[in-house]
Amino acid sequence: MDYQDLNIWSKRAADWARDYHLNLRNQPVRAQTKIGDTAAKLPPIAPENPEPMEQIFADFEAMVPGATTHWQHPRFFAYFPANASPASMLAEQLANAIAGQAMLWETAPAANEIEAVMINWLRDALGLPDTFTGTIHDSATTTTLSAILTMRERALAWRGNKQGLSALPRIRLYASGETHSSIDKSARIAGIGQENLVKIPTDNTHAMRIDALEAAILADRQAGYMPAGVIACVGGTSIGASDNIKETIEIAHKHGLTVHVDAAWAGSAMICPEFRHLWAGIENADSIVFNPHKWLGAQFDCAIQFLRNPKDQINTLGSRPTYLTTLDQDDVVNYNEWTVPLGRRFRALKLWFTLRAYGLSGLRQRIRNHVAWAQMACDAIAKIPGVQITTPPALSLFTFRLNESDAQTETLLRRINKDGRIYLTQTRHKGAFVIRMQVGQFDCTLDDVMMAPKVIAELVKTAK
């Protein structure tokens, strides 16, 4: 395949993409395949000789779409969305064509400088002060790992990177049980250890208890441990819980700890001023993550980290050997020094295209619609006999269950997803198995959202 072939097949792929998205409503949301079905259709070894693109493309059409869970389906109400607006997809095509490696300013000046401007655009759009700067990571998990590594090194005066952790004080981190599992994973990867991530009890609003947080910090210091940081959440994955950001930061800073705020999903909603009460006090956070790929239409992967003082993270993650220096430009910003990977994709391009193609006003209207429609769906589901709303909408996320038992609720979820018209997921809340519904797919309509109570009502009725 050469570049002339690329021209031909790119047009074919664009036609396929258009038809794929226009016809998604006619497809079941979740893949209706069994484990191993797709692998069984592939040859056990790679081809020795080139194969014609006609056959390759035909095999793709025959094998992939039917074995795909359609994240861009307008009735995808599971997890949080991984949106891909048309403008974002176009930008990704161009970034893929350029195929640059944006590890240094010198290797990708446009990518570097557009990234800096997009950080400022989004900072202002979310109502953050101009004291914040930031960078783009692949996902919130990597962002949180970067923040936790920085907490570790700051607490240890940057001795951990040089000496290792074995002879140094035992680091402690603090978060509530409503935070995402990526915090647990980051604590393990950072060498801090799962046992040193202290889960603070929550109050009746599911926020981390401030008194319990301070008590834990004081107790750990008394025991000879080294408290390093607090990870707070805004819009937790399970039920959408949010910590009291202002008071959490005040207590953490009082005791010399840094604060990373995980707003991976809910952060996008802060482009709407009426939702900013959910993170009141955010201006004093040390690090914040939100994912434009979750609710702003930027194609996965695209996580933004805002930093109040990037020097600590650069001191933790940065490395500038001779072969990575830019001659005669000692003060240049190289974003690889702010992140874990050296290699970096041109992620800022899809932000530039998306923000311009839809405008903040268009993106705000989508989010406001999703929040309002989630409330309407929740109200309708609450009227179904035998169904109980277990947590009311937090923005566009709510949970429910059947009154009878966990087993029957789980059976209902299996039937919903096997039916195919909508896709939901589960969590546990107060020990009970509950079903999550989150509205946020870029192209969903009110009719799509209200399909959920219709399907649930039908399946609950036929189960009796």
SSE topology sketch:
Elements: H1 3-22, H2 37-40, H3 53-63, H4 86-98, H5 109-125, E1 133-137, H6 140-155, H7 160-163, E2 171-176, H8 181-189, E3 197-200, H9 210-222, E4 226-233, H10 245-254, E5 258-262, E6 287-290, H11 292-295, E7 303-307, H12 310-317, H13 348-382, E8 387-394, E9 397-402, H14 406-419, E10 425-429, E11 432-438, H15 446-462
Parallel strand pairs: 2-3, 2-4, 4-5, 5-6
Antiparallel strand pairs: 1-7, 6-7, 8-9, 9-11, 10-11
What is the beta-strand fraction?
5-15%
The total count of strands amounts to: 11
* Rg (CA only): 24 Å
Helix and strand element order: HHHHHEHHEHEHEHEEHEHHEEHEEH
Overall helicity:
40-55%
Number of helices: 15
CATH topology of one domain: Aspartate Aminotransferase, domain 2
Overall shape: globular
* CATH class identity of one domain: Alpha Beta
The structural class is alpha/beta
Sheet with most strands: strand arrangement? 1-7-6-5-4-2-3
The poorly predicted ranges are none
Relevant CATH superfamily of one domain: Type I PLP-dependent aspartate aminotransferase-like (Major domain)
CATH architecture of one domain: 3-Layer(aba) Sandwich
Average residue-wise pLDDT: 92
